[in-house]
What does this fold into?
Amino acid sequence: MADTYDLVVIGSGPGGYVCAIRAAQLGMKVACVEKRATLGGTCLNIGCIPSKALLQASEKFEEANHHLGTFGVKVGKVELDLKGMMGHKDKVVGDNVNGVAFLFKKNKIDWVKGAARVAGAGKVDVALNGGGSQTLTTKNIVIATGSDVMPLPGVVVDEQRIVSSTGALALPEVPKSMIVIGGGYIGLEVGSVWQRLGTKVTVVEFLDRILPGMDGEVSKQMQRILGKQGMAFKLGTKVTGAKPTNKGVDVTLEPAKGGAAETMTVDIVLLSIGRKPFVDGLGLKEAGVALDERGRVKTDAHFATNVQGIYAIGDVIAGPMLAHKAEDEGVAVAEILAGQAGHVNYDAIPGVVYTWPEAASVGKTEEQLKQEGVEYRAGKFPFTANGRARAMASTDGFVKVLADKKTDRVLGVHIIGPEAGTMIAELALAMEFGASAEDIARTCHAHPTLNEAVKEAALAVDGRPIHI
Ligand SMILES: Cc1cc2nc3c(=O)[nH]c(=O)nc-3n(C[C@H](O)[C@H](O)[C@H](O)COP(=O)(O)OP(=O)(O)OC[C@H]3O[C@@H](n4cnc5c(N)ncnc54)[C@H](O)[C@@H]3O)c2cc1C
It folds into this structure.
């Protein structure tokens, strides 16, 4: 393995590995340092991929248990094989991380196994996993070290009974009860998995709504739907402590605005109040790399830090902590390093919550548009009026298109419904191309598809939906 590179990427999550591949495609000699035993970062190992594998599997269980009868399919006694379900998850993770190792080989990227420290511009010291160290010399460094679980005072994660998402995706048995601290997408997704398998899940959220940051109407409807599925919510409530006892975990709760405390005892507590940038052990202070007020690596519009030759992307910098955002930044910075015009359009980054139904959005929410004083028109179409959704017996939710009042340009789209995460791609593309609601309304959509609800919502912006 050589010691001199055009680019050393630190971290092999979706930001780092995609950056390494794109840079190699552009002719650079690339190394990627990863301290975890496998490639793929949070996303492939303990995040997006295992959570979706369990969401998919638990959806099947739920379907077999409660919904197949609707379709005239009779099943006998449905039994959970949790080991088998976890085995499915582990296989999916294994296939994905091995896939990245294959892509590294294909693109002649050196995978350096160990923990990297930035020893200054052009130099990376690696404490090798197998023992010893190696110094890499490079023209450029990209920091892609991602994020870690946000801690909460009084709640000490032991990954046994007080777990982060990592522990919650590998519980050895179905808990009877669980408190999920934090009503963001990770808490709702992982909470949904266990709720479908039989756990009584209570989501405790400091704010007065779940899914903060998403369109208010979507949050409200999602809470109502998940509530119907059996999930309980304690909003405007803060957790002040969690103590494991021989009966479970005693969790103390207080109204966010202050007031009398109460204690709930549950089997498992999932801490999911967000994630924080991960820069531990990187030596950034010594290397003179500046962080912002929230501990994120500070970058300019070209992902450059204040130290020449050192760049950063993904969860460790500002912006939504999402895998596809990290990937797009990885591509952009590799292209910038190759002298091309790499670019990320932060106005058209979709966000998806993979519950059932799913919630997905791109662009501005109604609350944001109101706050910014932008005049807009909204068109909404419910899935109850969509033929395919009826055929799927999955009619909860709607599509909402927000368009500029004067120009009709699409400013945001919010969907709650079956396959919303797949449907949103059409809208991200529309926004990339600066589409108007009329453009979407006049685009022929196949029948019968869920996406016809998008066309109808776009028609509704102009007050002329056909099927409602
Ligand atoms: C449960 C869960 C579910 C999620 N689901 C989704 C989803 O459905 N969709 C979505 O878009 N996002 C999802 N995310 C978020 C997504 O995982 C992150 O946004 C994404 O992984 C960020 O990519 P990254 O490349 O910036 O960093 P990471 O994926 O965090 O990768 C960073 C890598 O750097 C390595 N590293 C750190 N420091 C060093 C060092 N000094 N030396 C060597 N290696 C180092 C780490 O070991 C890690 O492998 C989820 C996250 C979680 C926790």
In short: The chain is about 30% helix and 25% strand.
